[in-house]
Amino acid sequence: MMIDTQLVPRGIKQKEVLHAMFTVPRHIFVEDGLYSQAYSDFPLPIGEKQTISQPYMVALMTESLGLTGREKVLEIGTGSGYQTAILSFLAEKIYSIERIPTIASRARKTLDALHCSNVIVRVGDGTLGWPEEAPFDAIIAAAGSPRVPSAYMDQLRAGGRLIMPVGAEDSQELIRITKKENNIVREVLGGCRFVKLIGKDGWQ
Ligand code: SAH
């Protein structure tokens, strides 16, 4: 139902994305009491004032990265690990950073239960990226920032894509940046509302 009533009617087309979202059980990423709402059309609390993103937002962001299966991906804001699991189906290796240790360890357990062995989760300030593993073919941040952290542009490979919400605390634009050999293309994919990206090059 999530695929047929939320994703396809809003224009999600890439069959690999739809297949990954059909395959990954979303209910194991939410708290027990919220199982019955796990496939609903809104974000849900995951503790520590954070949320698991709305399914459509996960689909849109993933599709916008245009993954082929061979990419090295940097994800900032592991959260529940749901987006991470979807990425792990669609790219070669995922490096995911989460600021809050309890959230990171819960995500790790859920990802292990799904045998997502191509994912590394680390606790830290994701506004600095993951310099030791750069460059990345794709970068995705699931938390909103007043600007694109400079580390992301440095750590994105030429030809690579970055998706993240940029704007004010209570509403942002979903931005896609494509880094070409000689220029940078910046597109606005729509309005959105994410939790804050908190760190040295985000919100204080
Ligand atoms: N896609 C995730 C979204 C989680 S919410 C999901 O669907 O579950 C965003 C997450 O970003 C939160 O868990 C928050 O703690 C984390 N976050 C915020 N600032 C961060 C930073 N600087 N580095 C890493 N993670 C950060």
The averaged pLDDT comes out at: 97
Instruction: Provide the list of bound ligands, each named once.
Output: S-adenosyl-L-homocysteine
CATH homologous superfamily identity: Vaccinia Virus protein VP39
Question: Any idea what the CATH architecture is?
Answer: 3-Layer(aba) Sandwich
Structural class: alpha/beta
Task: Give keywords.
single chain, about 200 residues, alpha/beta, Rossmann fold, seven-stranded mixed β-sheet, two-stranded antiparallel sheet, 9 strands, globular, binds S-adenosyl-L-homocysteine
Question: How would you describe what is shown here?
Answer:
The chain is an alpha/beta fold. The chain has a single domain (2-32, 43-192), classed as Rossmann fold, CATH 3.40.50. It is 26% helix and 28% strand. It is built from six helices and nine strands; from the N terminus they run ααββαβαβαββαβββ. It has a seven-stranded mixed beta sheet with strand order 5-4-3-6-7-8-9. It has a two-stranded antiparallel sheet with strand order 1-2. It is globular. S-adenosyl-L-homocysteine binds at residues 46, 50-53, 76-77, 79-80, 82-83, 97-100, 103, 125-127, 142-143, 195, 197-199, 202.
